[in-house]
Amino acid sequence: KKTYKCTECEYSTVSEVRYEDHRKKSHSSDKIFSCHLCDFTCSWSKKFNQHMLVHYYGPPYQCEHEGCNYSSDTIKSVLVHRVRHTDERPYPCDQCDMRFRTRSNLCAHRKCHQGEKPWKCPVCEMSFATKSTLSQHSVRHSDDRPYLCDKCGFGTKFQSHLIAHKRIHTGRCQFPQCSYFAPKQSQLKSHMRTHLGIRKFTCEECDKSFVEKSHLVRHQKIHLEEKPYSCSECGYSSTRKDKLKEH
After folding, report:
1. Which residues of the chain, if any, have pLDDT below 70?
2. Which CATH code for domain 92-141?
3. What pLDDT is recorded for position 29?
4. CATH homologous superfamily for 212-246?
5. What integer pLDDT is reported at residue 26 of this predicted model?
6. Are 168 and 189 in contact (CB under 8 A)?
7. pLDDT at 28
8. How much is the pLDDT for 4?
């Protein structure tokens, strides 16, 4: 039988289908592994791990995040652990726009596209493809907030929200592909709520929710049919000043 050998790693198989699947999953054209300490990029995790030995001393290898004492005899374990402290999601799904911190999470996610959802929430009966996603969902039914900010005491149910929150103390939003910066902490907090989906101001007339109270007040004028901003050149009027300027 013919053996298919990968030209970028040590993988080999007698199945052409498995070979193509390996190439697609492990060596896509997108260079998904980027070194945070230099400009190195690659599409193969083993090559990436070998490169990172240049920057880490060991064994044992120590997590470089401030206040973290985690260490391991393998560089792979430290790098897998390290993403807990960051927003990095180097593993993209080839069927949707979602990205993941680990390959195992990506593999688990792929079950969603296959229609498999064997894990059911006992509270609301929503179904999930994996036990881990069920566990993540279940915290929504709890009041516990185990992830605490060491600078201000902010608490949240999700580690990703805590990571995002800590950027408030630097003045810069570092959500992926967001360059927003605010000199005032209150402004940055308001901006962060848009990423986190926090809309605590709800209209009593139509149940539409808003991030800011001012946005709710502006919206409520629609129900009151108030249009205080009028054009001096014609009969146009609007509930919003910015819409009048556009007009």
Report:
1. 1, 8-10, 23-32, 87, 167-168, 170-177, 182-186, 196-197, 226, 239
2. 3.30.160.60
3. 53
4. Classic Zinc Finger (3.30.160.60)
5. 62
6. yes
7. 59
8. 82
pLDDT at 64: 78
What fold is seen in the domain 147-196?
Double Stranded RNA Binding Domain (3.30.160)
pLDDT at 117 (0 to 100) = 79
**Residue 141: exposure state from Cβ atoms within 10 A (0-12, 13-18, ≥19):** exposed
User: Domain coordinates of the chain in residue numbers?
Assistant: 92-141, 147-196, 212-246
Residue type, 32: I
User: What is the widest separation between alpha-carbon atoms in the chain?
Assistant: 83
Give every CB contact of residue 86 below 8 A, 6+ residues apart in sequence.
36, 163
